[in-house]
Amino acid sequence: MYSSRPPRGSVARVQQARCTRHIASKPHIADGTRLAIHAGMTLPRLHPFSWTANFAPRSCDAGRRILNVLIATLALVLTLPLMVAIAVLIKLTSRGPVLFTQPRIGLDRRAIGNAGGNSRRHSDHGGRTFTMYKFRTMRVTGGATHEVWAQRDDPRVTALGGVLRKLRLDELPQFWNVLVGDMNVVGPRPEQPAIFASLREQIREYSERQRVLPGITGWAQINRAYDSSVDDVREKLTYDLEYIRRRSAVEDLKIMLLTPAVMLGRRGGW
Q1: Which end of the chain has less neighbouring CB within 10 Å, N or C?
Q2: Tally of CB atoms within 10 A around 219
Q3: For 116-165, how does the pLDDT look when each residue is reduced to its tens digit (9 = 90+)?
Q4: What is the dihedral of CA 161, 166, 167, 168, to 10 degrees?
């Protein structure tokens, strides 16, 4: 190939084939600003630009899906008494519903469904919007709610909510999201639509997170704290992309096993 950017159609075809390919291409004279970094060099001396498209075979996806369903089912059964107790405590200690629901951006299937890349559904969203479930940890107010980043010391958080957040127990209902296919146990954390749209404009490759199902926990979550700035998001993105490049059932199991220690140590960021 003779372009410093992988053509959209080529990426889509690799995605559709569900395989792994390492592709090298030379910068093209029409690429403008990318060529400027090679000022004074002749075109034959330009170093190839390499990119890797890594998509597991369908059998691997099916195996990973079965693993996620089994783990989510087991988690819901084992934590049912705890979730019932949490629900009762929420109702006794504050006014409002037990569950907090919020739209999040999920998997982007557009390129996979259309190799040509000309007909893209949900073009304003970057992925399918789904409803994510959590235990409610904040007081219910009468005013309009706005999409904002999570804050470590948010004054709206109830006393019980603070405990649930520290132990990540407010995330337990998301095992239902895993069962219905909105999420996996492991993957990049799903973002709110307005925040996602803003970050997509500010951070190159941010949309690449949507190439896999979002997760309850992830490589970024067990290694980094809450993000409170765009720079924090950029740093977390490197972990998400690293996970996507090497994801496997073994990698997922490793992250799952590391997550409880992070939760109990009150580290990480969800």
Answers
A1: N
A2: 26
A3: 444 444 444 578 999 999 999 999 876 555 556 666 667 889 999 999 99
A4: 70
Instruction: Enter the DSSP assignment of 205.
Output: T
Within a 10 A sphere around the Cβ of 144, how many other Cβ atoms?
5
Q: In the prediction, which pLDDT does 9 show?
A: 52
Encode pLDDT of 219-234 as tens digits.
999 998 877 789 999 9
**Which neighbouring-strand residues pair with 107?**
none
In angstroms and rounded to an integer, the radius of gyration of the C-alpha atoms of the chain is: 21
Residues 6+ apart with CB under 8 A from 233: 199, 203, 206, 227
Q: Which two tokens stand for residue 237?
A: 């993105």
Tell me the whole-structure pTM to 2 decimals: 0.73
Structure tokens at 129: 């919007």
Compute φ and ψ for 24, nearest 5 degrees: -110, 140
Extract the tokens encoding 68. 């996620």
